[in-house]
Every structure is written in C-alpha cells, then in structure tokens.
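Q: What would this chain look like folded?
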Amino acid sequence: MATALAGLDLTAEVVTGDSDEPARALARALNIPVTANARPEDKLRILSDHAAKGHHVMMVGDGLNDTGALAAAHASIAPAKALEASRNAADIVVLKDSFAELPLVLKIARATRRLSQQNFAIAAIYNCIAVPIALAGFATPLAAALAMSLSSITVLLNAQRMRYL
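A: My prediction, written as structure tokens:
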C-alpha cells in the first residue's frame, strides 16, 4: 500500500472505522494522517470538508460504512473483494485484491480524459469547417461522406493511443 500511495503523487489521508491502535500502526507504516473510529457520517463530513476547500476527493473503500462516502466522492474505487454495496457505490472496481495498481488506474483515467478532450476538439474543428462548406453548397455528398469518414478515422486512431500507455 505504501508503494501505491507513493506512486499516486496525491495527498492521502486514511479515515477508518478501526480502533486507535490499528489506525496508529497504519499511520506509522504509511506515514500519512489517520483518523480512527470514524463512523459513516464522519467520513462524509471529512470528504465534504475537503470538497468545500475545492479539492477533488478520491475515496477508496471496501466496507458497508464506506458506501456513502464512495457515492459522494468525486471519484471512488473499491476492490473486487469489497461488499457488494461498496462495489455498487464505487466508480471503479479494481479486480485485484491489492491496491498496488492504483497509480496505473489514475494514469489510465488521466490519459482517457486527455484523449477524450482531443477527440471532442477534432470533431468540433471538423464541424466548424465542414458544415459551413456543405451548407454553402461547395461539397458534394460524396466529398462530405469522405470528409466525415476521415474525421471518424482520425478520432479512432487517436483513441488507439490508449494501447501504448
């Protein structure tokens, strides 16, 4: 878990329903702040406090007491072994029992967002150029179909870049 947290390049905090001693041991092992004996409403309050400060909060949880915070977080992750309610409340379910892949999950999410924005830009540029030309009558139906196909192929090829992460 410490390796996964180090690879995230994000501020981390543990809010757990566990008692003080296990929470302190976790705090020492991970070298991050830990809040113990947290009830579901405490987790929601802490999450809301961070969100009120303008932070985008990612929640990772696996228990029944995590479901409210998982649902309320900007992004949330649960492991496959989590309770069904937690898996349903989470945005992402990691199929491994370990969170060692969290840095990879975030890398893929960021790349997906970046490529999606690029694809929207490609489509917008195409529409800004092609639609006025077609409306002015300067494009034959065959030329418009070819241009639309070229735009679609460009978007698909750009999306294929996800394979090379």
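The first helix runs from residue 2 to 8.
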